[in-house]
Amino acid sequence: MNEPRSAERLAADADPGLQGGADGSVNYGHVVEPGVIDSGHGDILYLEDISVSFDGFKALNKLTLNIALGELRCIIGPNGAGKTTMMDVITGKTRADSGSAFFGQTIDLLRMSEPEIAHAGIGRKFQKPTVFEKHSVFENLELAMKARKDPFGTLRARLDSAQLDAIAATGERIGLAQSLNREAGMLSHGQKQWLEIGMLLIQEPIVLLLDEPVAGMTDAETDRTADLFLELAGEHTLIVVEHDMDFVNRIARTVTVLHEGSVLAEGPMAQVQNDQRVIEVYLGR
Ligand SMILES: Nc1ncnc2c1ncn2[C@@H]1O[C@H](COP(=O)(O)OP(=O)(O)O)[C@@H](O)[C@H]1O
Ligand SMILES: [Mg+2]
To answer: Which of the four, 34, 71, 144, 147, has the lowest number of CB atoms within 10 Å?
Structure first.
């Protein structure tokens, strides 16, 4: 079996003229064959007692978290709570010092590389949009799709009708159906974020990790993003880190509050909002 490679690397290999975003670190999630992920009694992601230290500072401190298949989970908490580090551990970017992390019942994330985890079906959207600015919306979606379906070959081959349909459907879903031929660099900030979400979706990830997806969006864009996430939940499992509490309020089912690297509180929004400890460390500020 060939070693899975990151889609971005592949796109860059295929066309040296293509440039990713500034940090160049986007991960496009991939799905393995149907049925390979055994979600057992319903949980798709289990973290147990995960600890991560940076120079003796515990960014994660025995973090335990279970996410059910199809859930839309919001993660909130003050700056430095460990939210991004949690995503880094799930996606293999950062190694945990101890604990366990499973995708489904059987896939041990702590033994996998970042590209292997992406290939297994965990996609991640970083804060900054990292679309290919000089290429059209259509081409961005096409590249993301082909990086998954045909990683080593015919990036220039003609699209078949199923592929054209997938691009059209994704464009529709992310609200860019009328903008498929526009250069990505000309899109608004919110539209770029949607495009990048589309580039993840077209690879059919099982789990999508979204770090502060509505930061910098207008109110209207934020509203549309809430609708999109509500639509995607069920079909995908979404883990959303966000500080915008109006947005969280709109989409939240279960909310997890991280503080000092562990779960401080977890439950329905109304319950978490009224938790005295949560008010003290985060909401009351
Ligand atoms: N690569 C790193 N090296 C050193 N310290 C880090 C690194 N990544 C995160 N940290 C520290 O770990 C803590 C948790 O950070 P982070 O996960 O980014 O929090 P959040 O996303 O909740 O704001 C912070 O104190 C941060 O400074
Ligand atoms: Mg963060």
So the answer is: 34
Asked whether residue 222 is domain-assigned, the answer is yes
Q: Quote the CA–CA distance of 14 and 156 in Å, as a whole number.
A: 9
Report the alpha-carbon distance of residue 137 to residue 139 in Å, rounded.
5
Residue 266 main-chain phi, psi, to 5 deg:
-155, 135
SS3 208: strand
Residue 269 near residue 244, CB atoms below 8 Å: no
Stronger pLDDT, 2 or 198, i.e. the higher one: 198
**For residue 90, which ligand has an atom nearest its CA?**
1
Query: What's 182's domain CATH number?
Result: 3.40.50.300
Q: Is residue 122 part of a domain?
A: yes
Atom 24 in ligand 1: residue holding the nearest Cα: 80
CB 110 within 8 A of CB 96: yes
Beta carbons of 83 and 105 less than 8 angstroms apart: no
Exposed/middle/buried for residue 5 (C-beta within 10 Å: 0-12, 13-18, 19+): middle
* pLDDT tens profile 42-57: 799 999 999 999 999 9
Q: Which of 276, 240, 237, 282 is nearest to 258 (CA)?
A: 282
Pocket lining: 54 vs ligand 1, CB cutoff 6 Å? yes
Q: What is the pTM of this model?
A: 0.85
Domain extent, residue 199, equals 7-26+68-83+118-283
> Structural domain tally of the chain?
1
d(C-alpha 25, C-alpha 130), whole Å: 8
Tokens of 75: 């993660």
Q: Which of 32-46, 50-64, 150-164, 257-271 has the lowest mean pLDDT?
A: 32-46
Cα separation values, 147 from 22, 29, 192, 197, Å? 20, 10, 19, 15
Is 106 among the domain residues? no
